[in-house]
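Quick one, probably user error.
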C-alpha cells in the first residue's frame, strides 16, 4: 500500500472512530460537576418531566436485570424510595438492559415500585460514561453532583442517602 493508500485508510479509520463516539460525553460525571437532568419516559409508560427534578435532590441509579450487585442493592433503593416519598428528594433509576421488557419483568418479579426508565441518549449525554454497575449519583437541588458511587453499596449507606434531601 502506497502513501496515499495509508493516508486514505487512516482518514477512514478516524472517521469511523469519530462517528461511533460522536455525541458521547468526553468524560464520566464526577462530584462537583453541574448538570441539568432531562425528562424520562418510565417503563410504565408515564413520563417523569425534567421539572420533577427542580428544587429536589435527585438520586440516580444505573442498574441491569442481569447484574448480581444490582440485585443486592435494589431492595435498599426500594426502601429508600418508600422512606423519602413526600420529601424533597427524587429517586430515579435507569436500566441498561437491551430490551425494556427485561427490565419490566425484573421490576415486576421483585415488586419494585421506584421510578425506572431505560438509559437514553439524553441521559447518557448528561451523566457521561459509566464506570460500573450499579452506579449511583446524588445530585443536589442546584444540579451539582454531591456524591458518586460505583459498585454495590451496603443497605445502611443507601438508607443514609435520605440525609441528602433538600441539599
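Nope, works fine. Designed sequence:
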Amino acid at each position: 500500500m502506497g502513501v496515499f493508500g495509508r493516508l486514505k485508510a487512516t482518514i477512514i479509520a478516524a472517521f469511523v472512530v469519530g462517528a461511533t463516539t460522536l455525541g458521547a460525553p468526553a468524560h464520566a460525571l464526577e462530584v462537583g460537576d453541574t448538570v441539568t437532568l432531562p425528562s424520562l419516559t418510565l417503563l410504565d409508560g408515564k413520563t417523569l418531566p425534567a421539572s420533577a427534578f427542580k428544587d429536589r435532590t435527585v438520586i440516580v441509579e444505573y442498574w441491569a436485570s442481569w447484574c448480581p450487585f444490582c440485585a443486592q442493592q435494589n431492595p435498599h433503593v426500594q426502601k429508600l424510595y418508600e422512606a423519602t416519598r413526600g420529601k424533597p428528594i427524587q429517586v430515579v433509576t435507569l436500566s441498561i438492559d437491551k430490551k425494556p421488557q427485561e427490565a419490566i419483568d425484573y421490576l415486576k418479579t421483585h415488586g419494585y415500585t421506584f421510578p425506572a426508565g431505560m438509559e437514553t441518549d439524553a441521559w447518557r449525554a448528561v451523566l457521561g460514561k459509566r464506570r460500573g454497575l450499579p452506579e449511583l449519583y446524588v445530585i443536589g437541588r442546584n444540579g451539582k453532583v454531591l456524591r458518586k458511587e460505583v459498585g454495590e453499596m451496603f443497605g445502611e449507606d443507601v438508607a443514609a442517602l435520605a440525609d441528602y434531601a433538600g441539599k
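Residues 3-21 form the longest helix (19 residues).
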